Amino acid sequence: MSAQRLNLLSFSGKTKILHMTWMAFFISFVVWFNHAPLMMVIAKTLGMDNSEIKTILILNVALTIPARIVIGILVDKFGPKRTYSTLLAAGSIPCFMFAFATSFEQLALARFLLGFIGAGFVIGIRMVGEWFPAKQVGIAEGIYGGWGNFGSAAAAGALPALALIFGGDEGWRYAIATTGAISLIYSIIYFFSVSDTPKGSTYFKPKKAGAMEVTSIWDLFFYILMSVPLYATLSLLTWKLSPTGANLLSNAAAICIYTGIWALFIYNVYKIIHVNEEHLQHPIDEIHKYKFKQVAILDLAYFITFGSELAVVSMLPLFFFDTFHESHGVTMVEAGLLGGSFAFINLVARPAGGWISDKFGRKLSLSIFVLGLSLGYFCMSLINSEWPIALAVLITMACSCFVSGGCGAVYAIVPLIKRRMTGQIAGMVGAYGNVGGVLFLTILSFVTPAVFFVIIAAVALSVLIAVQFIDEPKGHMAEVQEDGTVEMIELN
């Protein structure tokens, strides 16, 4: 019952670090999603049409996929204290650019750059993993993820009211600029309030930066293979903006972006080989080995959990409006509130997912959550206008419990794979969540919501099979200190 003895009312030691860090994540998500509730008034001020609004929404997520990989590398090299503080400070700059943009082009550039702050999540995973033992790391990571994630909902609730307080047609500008100011101020507070590790502990860093270390030739090829979907998704986003999609990029611009994406992939492959070629030429002691399949399976698990959450949260208000407007007289505002029920569950369900993982085993917990969300999405595919609204919302919230719990269960395992690469592992797993969001939303543009839910349910079943091949973390993982001594870190 150790996981239950986490005193959240305390503001000292590891609990202080948890509170300071989830607040950093919360603020980063407020800044990342500060445009969403104000989008219509922003569009009116700058005379934007529907295609330009859609472009802003796509650009908001475009940079987050590579950013999570980059931030993972930086946090492992420089530590979470410096990385989080720098990201919050740097993220305020495009936030101010967005707030005071006078043209669509300026707005689009600022929104694209703001995608980088969406990678802040990765930093806290490493910080919390450093401060909490294995028996509590699930619930701690769950609280960090669940409470921090609520920043997007807080932005939706608070920013329209803040814009009204500032008043006038330009009130939205000052509301958005306020979030940038908060981010800048908190970056300083965070830097002077936390440390990377408890006193006396070592912060283990990768031997080489730029890519994850692997411990077998097979894992090297597996790593390269699992990198392909990240670049394929960036290509998919480009296609959505190209003449064959939303027609917001010229053919020449799209070709340039495709070329850049795959040139980046080739460079990434070079870095993966460069980081690993030397140590793979020599036998690796068994205690220093880890299986890359652990990372790959968590990639897929987050793809279906957080990826489906991203997609469903985006489409749910409109789904409820279209389904119940005529039969039950549901308004757009009411549909928005009903749709928000899916994300609201995160506050409790994600920490619960981590706690269940701590208490009942990582593999079993993750399997139950993935199976539950598959059944949940299948039930959601059956919702129609004849259903009572209360039953539809109940099914939606039940499904959300498994989805958010699954996110918590994934990140209950991430810090237990290889300590010195926790940031990079968290970055890759997190990026797969964004990949899922983009892919599922693309599928939605071709099919009905009912078919969309069935497809997610079917994909979840295939991920459930993959989860059966993950190894339960147990025993110890070994990390080498600077003086060459080996430290054994307990995993259960």
Kindly describe this structure:
This protein has 492 residues and is mostly helical. It has 19 helices and 2 strands. The protein has helices at 13-32, 39-46, 50-62, 64-78, 80-99, 104-114, 120-131, 134-149, 151-166, 171-191, 217-241, 251-280, 292-328, 332-344, 346-360, 362-380, 389-411, 422-444, 449-467; strands spanning 476-480, 486-490. The protein has a two-stranded antiparallel sheet.
Shape: globular
Strands across the major sheet, in which order? 1-2
SSE pattern, N- to C-terminal:
HHHHHHHHHHHHHHHHHHHEE
The level of helicity is over 70%
Mean pLDDT: 91
Distance between the termini: 13 Å
Approximately what portion of the residues adopt beta-strand conformation? under 5%
Radius of gyration over all CA atoms, rounded: 22 Å
The beta-strand count equals 2
Uncertain regions: pLDDT < 50 for 5+ in a row?
A: none
Largest sheet: 2 strands, antiparallel
How many separate helices? 19
Helix-strand category:
mainly alpha
Which keywords apply here?
single chain; 492 residues; mainly alpha; 2 strands
SSE layout and pairings?
Elements lengths: L12 H20 L6 H8 L3 H13 L1 H15 L1 H20 L4 H11 L5 H12 L2 H16 L1 H16 L4 H21 L25 H25 L9 H30 L11 H37 L3 H13 L1 H15 L1 H19 L8 H23 L10 H23 L4 H19 L8 E5 L5 E5 L2
Antiparallel strand pairs: 1-2
Helix pairs in contact: 1-5, 1-7, 1-8, 1-9, 1-10, 3-6, 4-5, 4-7, 4-18, 5-6, 5-7, 5-10, 7-8, 7-18, 8-15, 8-17, 9-10, 11-12, 11-18, 13-14, 13-17, 13-18, 13-19, 14-17, 15-16, 15-17, 16-17, 16-19
Question: How would you concisely characterize the structure shown here?
Answer:
With 492 residues, this protein is mainly alpha-helical. 72% of the residues lie in helices and 2% in strands.
